[in-house]
């Protein structure tokens, strides 16, 4: 079995077997070898520090690297900030992997991790991640970094959904914080009636992750496996329920359709023309750094749900992965472990004031809460909202191995919404077909 095809085949099988065919993947892995390559990265240093290269973009990362380097003379990390994943970072990483000059460790969000695994771009770090370490993290985060029974990354944060809103604008319109999506629509109507220029939130046509989180919250399961085959259900009843709801919100001009985090979106928030933001735990830092003049006006609430009971998906969330060709996996995992499970790592990330990350290690939530200045939110216990939301993340969600193709199809279709030349229902249908086609193009089996 030649090395390159073997790696590609092993990677595909690991992902395809993420939930139901681990035994098959294990048998093939045993035949081909696991290739973790971790025995020499600490021993052959001749007394010199191990030098790691690291690429990422999350807020506060530069401070994390500086703190690690100061406290770990035996390992020194060289950090390069790259564009966020969907803004070009993932393409840069993929190209570097293909060229053989990838960093030792890089950040990748949960939705894209299976894609990188299926491409053979990341290293199986199972032998370096013991049960005690995995037990530190939220089970949902461990599930999303475990494919085919193997560990492919360490989770940095969870990203439960949250609703950010302008207290003053809600009070002026006589609106109570919505608990259900029906309440949310009613609140949107009241806001528009109180001020025809004001909308309750924004639908981001360029970023499918918010809609994906809404589908997750609705109880959808986009990906699963049957034996060694993938099952894809992007257009199921739960997803269509979410799609129909947001389509009507758009058609009735109750939400804006604007590019995520754009100048247009920011200006709308600054002017009070958009009174809410449907985000995640990390959004607390985004608003604080984006709208410094609005301190005291914003608050955080649980995401509305269909029946008013707590329910959340995850909107993003970041992991640390080791690139396939790194010969320093042991040191890379040591760095990632420190960054994700120590008070010092979380403090360094959050102390800059721009990050409100919710740690994947629940024991560090009090550390994060203490490190983040909540004056922008009037001193509200925003981490209390995040804790409750994290506890309500629906289980058994899985990301597919071709999310690049899935998201491209969604973005292409979402781009037609503003011109009213397409619908969300058409978008999920198009994404279903594009996903199935890409799975087959990569030689992955599809059930049904």
TrEMBL record:
Give UniProt keywords alphabetically: Cell membrane, Lipoprotein, Membrane, Palmitate, Signal
Q: Output the SUPFAM superfamilies linked to this UniProt entry.
A: Periplasmic binding protein-like II
Q: Where is the signal peptide?
A: 1-27
Q: Superkingdom of this entry's organism?
A: Bacteria
**A Pfam family:** SBP_bac_1
Name recorded for this polypeptide: ABC transporter substrate-binding protein
| Organism placement in taxonomy | Bacteria, Bacillati, Actinomycetota, Actinomycetes, Kitasatosporales
């Amino acid at each position: 079995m030649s090395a390159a095809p073997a790696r590609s085949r092993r990677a595909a099988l690991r992902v395809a077997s993420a939930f139901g065919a681990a035994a098959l993947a294990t048998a093939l892995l045993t035949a081909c070898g696991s290739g973790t390559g971790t025995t020499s990265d600490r021993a052959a240093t001749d007394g010199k520090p191990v030098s790691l290269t690291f690429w990422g973009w999350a807020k506060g990362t530069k401070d994390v690297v500086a703190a690690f380097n100061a406290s770990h003379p035996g390992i020194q990390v060289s950090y390069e900030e790259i564009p966020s994943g969907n803004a070009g970072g993932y393409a840069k990483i993929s190209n570097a992997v293909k060229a053989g000059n990838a960093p030792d460790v890089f950040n990748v969000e949960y939705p894209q991790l299976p894609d990188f695994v299926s491409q053979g771009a990341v290293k199986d770090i199972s032998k370096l991640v013991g049960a005690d370490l995995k037990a530190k993290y939220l089970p949902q985060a461990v599930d999303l970094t475990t494919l085919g029974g193997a560990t492919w990354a360490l989770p940095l944060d969870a990203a439960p959904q949250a609703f950010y809103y302008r207290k003053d604008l809600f009070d002026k319109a006589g609106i109570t914080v919505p608990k259900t999506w029906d309440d949310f629509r009613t609140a949107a109507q009241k806001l528009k009636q109180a001020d025809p220029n004001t909308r309750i939130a924004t639908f981001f046509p360029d970023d499918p992750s918010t809609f994906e989180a809404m589908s997750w919250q609705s109880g959808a399961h986009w990906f699963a496996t049957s034996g060694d085959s993938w099952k894809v259900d992007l257009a199921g009843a739960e997803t269509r329920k979410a799609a129909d709801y947001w389509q009507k919100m758009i058609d009735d001009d109750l939400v804006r359709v604007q590019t995520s985090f754009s100048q247009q979106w920011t200006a709308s928030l600054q002017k009070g023309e958009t009174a809410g933001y449907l985000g995640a735990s990390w959004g607390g830092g985004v608003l604080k750094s984006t709208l410094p003049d609005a301190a005291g006006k914003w608050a955080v609430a649980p995401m509305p749900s269909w029946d008013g009971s707590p329910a959340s998906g995850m909107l993003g969330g970041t992991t640390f992965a080791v690139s396939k060709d790194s010969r320093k996996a042991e040191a890379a995992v040591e760095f990632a472990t420190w960054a994700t499970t120590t008070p010092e790592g979380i403090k360094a990330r959050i102390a800059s004031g721009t990050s409100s990350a919710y740690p994947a290690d629940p024991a560090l939530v009090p550390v994060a809460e203490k490190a983040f200045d909540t004056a922008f939110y009037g001193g509200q216990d925003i981490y209390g909202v995040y804790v409750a939301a994290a506890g309500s993340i629906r289980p058994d969600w899985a990301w597919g191995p071709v999310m690049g193709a899935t998201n491209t199809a969604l973005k292409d279709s979402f781009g037609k919404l503003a011109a009213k030349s397409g619908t969300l229902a058409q978008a999920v249908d198009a994404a279903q077909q594009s996903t199935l086609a890409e799975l087959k193009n990569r030689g992955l089996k599809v059930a049904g």
